[in-house]
Amino acid sequence: MNVLASIRIALRALRINKLRSALTMLGIIIGVAAVITMIAVGSGAQQRIEDQIKGLGTNLIILMPGSTTAGGVRMGAGSRNTLTEEDGYAIQRDIPGVQASAPTLRGTGQVVGGSGNWSTVFYGVTPEYFEARNWVVAEGKGFDMADVTGAAKVALLGDTVARSLFGDADPVGQVIRIRTVPFTVIGVLERKGQSLGGQDQDDVILMPISTARKRVLGQGAGRLRTVGSVSIKVRDGEDMKEVEGQIRELMRQRHRIQQDREDDFTLRNLSEVLATREESSRIMGLLLAAVASVSLLVGGIGIMNIMLVSVTERTREIGLRMAVGARGRDILTQFLVEAITLALIGGLLGIVLGLGGSLAIGHFAGWPIHLGMEPVALSVGFAAAIGIFFGFYPARKASLLLPIEALRYE
Asked: Which residue of 83, 192, 208, 271 lies most exposed, with the fewest beta carbons within 10 A?
């Protein structure tokens, strides 16, 4: 008997026992669907973190002012003004591994423009800020060092601010007031979405650092030339920890900190923080997929049980076929094809259910979903492997029956 004949007999046997075949496939369907859904959700979470990493800026180190102690109580980082604009310039000038260093001033205030007003955060920055934070100007243009030197009253709006003030109208060229100071909008920033902390990164206005200091924050800030932070982008291929150490050494020298004294600044290596969160997300995704894979194992055991029952029920049929010339390998092929067919059909239905479940989660829960062809192909292959693995023993048992004993079976 050839293979095609064995396949036809196996498929006919499955059609005769539709309900039993459907119940057998149920475990595979649920298992494959669960694996695909978990992989899609886990990959979507990883993709979201990667997008947030890109939004914050790659190879990024944040330098912040240090802490201070008052009345025996130590305040947090940033409670003491220890950084200056010149510190930011010195980092880029003196450390070869630094690609861009951008001192930053921060403030909040009411903004009026177009047909609305909005309370938002504004940052006084240098042109290097756009490179350090990987921020692209979507409309209009950015500002240059001439604008910083001249304290030009120009501003770039984040997407949220632009829509809140001007709706669908083009804000470029319009005049807005920030704390009653008029500014000309020269550009709109590319949308970044939420940060890892859930904050809207597009609810922001950028302006030259000198403008923020002299015209918005007041002469006190201008006299001190202090900054709230410095965004530092490390060149690709450089060792982040080594560059971080060089920055620390340079700052201690500039601030004349003695060897036995603590730093008066704080360094945060965002690449390490984000890498840790990405690794946690990846591990969680693998864990979810592993848990879902248990359903596939249960489905495989179900196939084996049903096939063993089928062998017992069809013992006389097996004996009759072997009596008229069927060989052991023909019986083995027939039952193995039945098991593989059950697993493959269940796998295909599970893929459809898994894709539908993933899309439903993405739509109703607002969760990012990302699914490539690899998990789908892996699920089909795994389903076929389950059919072969768990179907082999019942098929082997059937092929080893002696015709005379099988015909006598009651």
From this structure: 271
Q: How far apart are CA 348 and CA 376, in angstroms?
A: 9
Kindly compute the dihedral angle of the four CA atoms of residues 160, 166, 168, 172, in this order, to the nearest 10 degrees: -90
In sequence order, what DSSP letters do the residues of 92-159 get, joined into one string?
A: HHH-TTEEEEEEEEEEEEEEEETTEEEEEEEEEE-THHHHHTT--EEEE----HHHHHTT--EEEE-H
- Asked whether the beta carbons of 105 and 225 are under 8 A apart, the reply is no
Closest CA to 60 of 126, 135, 125: 135
Task: Check residue 408 and give its pLDDT.
Answer: 60
pLDDT greater than 60 at residue 400: yes
Tokens of 23: 């119940």
**Among 386, 163, 183, 206, which Cα is nearest to 296's?**
386
| pLDDT tens digit sequence for 44-96 | 776 666 666 655 556 888 999 876 544 444 454 545 678 999 999 999 999 99
In angstroms, what CA-CA distances link 242 with 97, 99, 285? 9, 14, 32
